[in-house]
Specification:
- It contains 16 helices and no strands.
- It is 85% helix and 0% strand.
- Helix 1 packs parallel to helix 8, helix 3 crosses helix 11 and helix 12 runs antiparallel to helix 13.
- The longest helix has 55 residues.
- By secondary structure, the chain is mainly alpha-helical.
């Protein structure tokens, strides 16, 4: 009996040189762009870290955590824009390409202005959550009062980067990141070292850097839009169905990000109850983990752009090739990080801290950072695939299920194994996030086009 191949499942082919080049043309600039992100925090901490009073460093550290958390929640402005733009590009709809940019920009402006208008209750909430000491409270308030004004420009920067990536112009995202870093570091030195403005100077440098980056981003948009036919159609931009779709996508990504944020916050909160040394050791290990995530996140954005374009073109074969090619390189990168952390993890810890007690505690748990890349890489890749296809409801539901698994693991493993149980719970969380999306992947691929 002859078996007839299922036409809904194109034959798996090993990606050719063309696909490897496409992946690296997108992922290369994004990896470099992502790796520049920690430089902003390092620069801000470095300039105030050399001031005679440590309260300024503490104030900037607390302020950075607050604003990173707030803005991370609105990361859907970048993630959603990538998928929608890439789909419009694949469908060859130039007016929709422009409309996606306009809708996202309107949403970013509205949210940014709302954050500024709500700065008083947001400040009170931040003080309640961070509980700064009396000495730190004053410079923290000064930092907050200035930094809050970066919200509209920063969220619009998210939109610009997302649109450029969706248009497969990832070099633009790299140019934006480099521009922000150069301006921010230069102004840090001028305002803090030169003018002595301390924490306020750091905040002012950040605000001006993002406003300047917005102007620079507009220039990049003008350059790219010259290559896009069509016009700005108000009826298309304000189309009710598309606005509702945008709202639904952004809502799902927001809820997914909120659950992820609370899950990471729980990790720190539980670690703090296991002792100061454990908390410090975990912070060092998480720095190594986060460095890895900044790198492999470039593949997440690359597969998002490629899958979004294939979804818009309704080309299942291209969709699968994008998934396979990007996954091969993403997993290869994760294995490299695993090997490096397994061999030199303790030496890397020594570069971060010289405190003997912290290094000794970290030595007991550092092997977990070598395990994390091979488990977490699937969450990055599958997140990018589902975002590119804008299947955000599936992402939201998968995250909710993974969080339930994570909570159950924490309740069972932490009392039994302490900090090892905490790290094992995190690994289970990574695995659950990947598995819950992987289960949904076949249906997602079948929904893309007709396979021809």
């Amino acid at each position: 009996m002859t078996t007839v191949p299922d036409p809904s499942w194109p034959a798996l082919r090993w990606p050719d040189r063309h696909w490897h080049a496409r992946v690296w043309r997108l992922a290369g600039p994004l990896i470099l762009s992502n790796l520049t992100t920690p430089l902003l925090g390092i620069a801000d901490s470095a300039v105030v870290g050399h001031l005679p009073d440590p309260v300024y460093l503490a104030a900037v550290a607390l302020g950075t955590v607050v604003f990173n958390t707030v803005f991370w929640l609105f990361g859907f402005l970048r993630m959603g824009t990538i998928g929608l733009t890439a789909q419009a590009l694949g469908a060859e709809e130039p007016e929709e390409i422009r409309a996606v940019l306009a809708r996202a920009a309107m949403a970013a402006t509205a949210i940014g202005c709302a954050i500024v208008l709500l700065q008083v209750p947001l400040y009170r909430l931040a003080v309640l959550a961070m509980a700064p000491s009396a000495d730190v409270a004053v410079p923290f308030a000064g930092y907050f009062d200035i930094r809050i004004w970066a919200a509209p420009a920063m969220l619009l920067d998210y939109v610009i980067v997302g649109w450029l990536v969706g248009m497969q112009y990832t070099r633009g995202a790299l140019y934006m990141a480099l521009f922000i870093n150069v301006v921010n570091i230069g102004l840090d030195l001028l305002f803090v070292v030169g003018f002595g403005w301390a924490a306020r100077g750091v905040a002012a440098a950040t605000v001006i850097a993002h406003c300047a980056a917005l102007a620079f981003g507009v220039l990049l948009l003008r350059y790219r839009l010259k290559q896009v036919a069509g016009s700005w159609a108000r009826s298309r931009i304000l189309d009710g169905a598309e606005l509702r779709r945008l709202f639904a996508i952004n809502r799902d990504i927001f809820l997914r990000t909120l659950m992820l944020t609370l899950s990471h916050a729980a990790l720190t909160a539980i670690a703090s109850r296991l002792g100061d040394l454990v908390l410090a050791a975990n912070a060092v290990i998480m720095n190594l983990h986060h460095f890895m995530t900044f790198a492999v996140d470039g593949f997440s954005h690359a597969v998002q752009a490629l899958c979004g374009r294939a979804t818009g073109a309704r080309d299942r074969r291209e969709f699968r090739q994008a998934v396979v090619a990007t996954s091969l390189w993403g997993v290869a990168f994760a294995l490299v990080f695993t090997a490096v952390y397994a061999v030199a993890g303790q030496q890397l810890v020594g570069l971060i801290t010289s405190i003997p007690e912290v290094r000794a505690t970290t030595a007991e748990f550092v092997f977990w950072v070598a395990v994390s890349p091979v488990l977490s890489i699937w969450t990055f890749l599958l997140d990018g695939i589902f975002l590119g296809a804008t299947r955000t409801a599936a992402m939201r539901n998968a995250m909710a299920l993974a969080v339930l698994v994570y909570v159950a693991a924490l309740l069972l493993l932490v009392p039994a194994f302490g900090n090892h149980g905490l790290w094992l719970s995190l690994m289970i969380f990574f695995a659950a996030r990947g598995l819950t999306l992987a289960i949904r992947y076949p249906a997602l691929e079948r929904s893309v086009g007709d396979g021809h």
